[in-house]
């Protein structure tokens, strides 16, 4: 049954939102870094550990069978959440692990050689940049990047020039974790497919806020993290097309991903198990499945419309405050309710401490995106990011606090 969207009812599912900071209600606007967890997620993980905790795919006793069934049922639920089949979903410890798996497997497979090219964007989270830097260094491939324009949009004219016959991989974020801009997936996929390049999508920031159908998106591989979609830490997933996963060798090896082992060699299970060596994040997978099921109980169209209103209120409100510079300030793109900004004359960390004293939790720093900050001539920014439980009053509380920052620090008086 789909529940009508009611933000107050949603908030009641999150125990942490009852917290107070120095006597003020917590206004949590750091969901882009990590989301809070509804009771359904907390209860699911605890119930598994209390009643079914056992190693999966390894035992014949009752608990082992039950744990394995719950683990694989979780794979089905999370795969459905992104429009995929369960055999296309590889459990990882998070998006970073998934991206390292892909880059490492491509290196093992010898798919890149000296003179080949890997194309990323100037807006990458470090997790979708450094693995490709390392792969390029090991193989002699060249790493190139699609520039970001002054308004935060990707330079698609430059992309068309960059993606060519030498391009083997095009990796990019679905949504920038700094700018909040939804990137043009279809256009980038078309460019990559035109030259036979593999596409890798970082869906960390889109998974909590947009309906995902990864097979229909056209990308070949995608990653996302559980802790950003109201799930637990230590769990994420790599999705891949059947033929792509089947063509990649294992990256991490050990137990549980093999069929036959001798003292001289090993034979491996098909995907996804051949990428899941060792002890798996079982309780976390069960809890992540609970998170996506919990999301699915709500009217997501109404929830996304609510978040769109929050995005407009956030960005327009910040625009109206003197001395505020927005990163990626454009009306020309689809966006999520996430915005990074600079307060003129006040360091981002000082802004963050001031807001925290008002009960408002935001992210400060470079957000694991130093090249993008350098592109905009800064080393750090303040980032506010909303979630399904965020209210318009909370956005107003942020805006009111931000409007007092420069005066508090004696700047611009």
Automatic annotation (TrEMBL):
Enzyme class: transferase
Xref: InterPro entries: Aminotrans_V_dom, Aminotrans_V_PyrdxlP_BS, Cys_dSase_SufS, PyrdxlP-dep_Trfase, PyrdxlP-dep_Trfase_major, PyrdxlP-dep_Trfase_small
Aminotransferase class V domain location: 27-398
Keywords, ordered alphabetically: Pyridoxal phosphate, Transferase
Single GO term (MF): pyridoxal phosphate binding
Obligatory cofactor(s): pyridoxal 5'-phosphate
Cell cycle keyword on record: no
Pfam families: Aminotran_5
The keyword Transferase is annotated on this UniProt entry: yes
One GO BP: cysteine metabolic process
EC number: 2.8.1.7
Reactions catalysed, as given in the entry: (sulfur carrier)-H + L-cysteine = (sulfur carrier)-SH + L-alanine
Family: Belongs to the class-V pyridoxal-phosphate-dependent aminotransferase family. Csd subfamily.
Entry function: Catalyzes the removal of elemental sulfur and selenium atoms from L-cysteine, L-cystine, L-selenocysteine, and L-selenocystine to produce L-alanine.
Entries under NCBIfam families matching the protein: sufS
Name of the protein described by the UniProt record: Cysteine desulfurase
Organism for this UniProt entry: Microbacterium testaceum
């Amino acid at each position: 049954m789909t529940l009508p969207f009611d933000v107050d009812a949603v908030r009641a599912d999150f125990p942490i939102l009852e917290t107070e900071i120095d006597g003020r209600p917590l206004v949590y606007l750091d969901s882009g870094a990590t989301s809070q967890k509804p009771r359904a997620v907390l209860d699911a993980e605890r119930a598994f550990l209390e009643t079914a905790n056992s190693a999966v795919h390894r035992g014949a006793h009752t608990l082992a069978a039950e744990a394995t069934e719950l683990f694989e049922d979780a794979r089905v639920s999370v795969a459905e959440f992104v429009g995929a089949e369960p055999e296309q979903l590889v459990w990882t410890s998070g998006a970073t692990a998934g991206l390292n798996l892909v880059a490492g497997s491509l290196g093992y497979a010898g798919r890149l050689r000296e003179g080949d090219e890997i194309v990323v964007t100037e807006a990458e989270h470090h997790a979708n940049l450094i693995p490709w830097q390392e792969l390029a260094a090991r193989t002699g491939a060249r790493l190139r990047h699609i520039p970001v324009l002054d308004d935060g949009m990707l330079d698609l004219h430059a992309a068309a020039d960059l993606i060519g016959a030498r391009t083997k991989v095009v990796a990019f974020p679905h949504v920038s974790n700094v700018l909040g801009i939804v990137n043009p997936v279809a256009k980038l996929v078309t460019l990559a497919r035109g030259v036979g390049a593999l596409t890798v999508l970082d869906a960390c920031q889109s998974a909590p806020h947009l309906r995902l159908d990864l097979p229909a998106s056209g990308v070949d591989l995608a990653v996302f993290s559980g802790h950003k979609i109201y799930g637990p830490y230590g769990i994420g997933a790599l999705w891949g097309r059947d033929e792509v996963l089947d063509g990649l060798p294992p990256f991490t090896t050990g137990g549980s991903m093999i069929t036959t082992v001798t003292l001289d060699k090993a034979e491996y299970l098909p995907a996804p198990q051949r990428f899941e060596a060792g002890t798996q994040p079982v309780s976390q997978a069960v809890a992540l499945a609970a998170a996506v099921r919990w999301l699915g109980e709500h009217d997501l169209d109404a929830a996304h419309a609510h978040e769109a209103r929050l995005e407009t209120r956030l960005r327009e409100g910040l625009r109206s405050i003197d001395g505020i510079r927005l990163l990626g300030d454009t009306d020309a793109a689809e966006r999520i309710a996430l915005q990074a900004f600079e307060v003129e004359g006040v360091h981002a960390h000082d802004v963050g401490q001031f807001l925290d004293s008002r009960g408002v939790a935001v992210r400060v720093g470079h957000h694991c995106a130093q090249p993008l900050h350098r592109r905009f001539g800064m080393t750090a920014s303040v980032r506010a990011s909303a979630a399904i439980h965020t209210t318009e009053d909370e956005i107003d509380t942020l805006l009111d606090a931000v409007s007092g920052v420069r005066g508090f620090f004696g700047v611009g008086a």
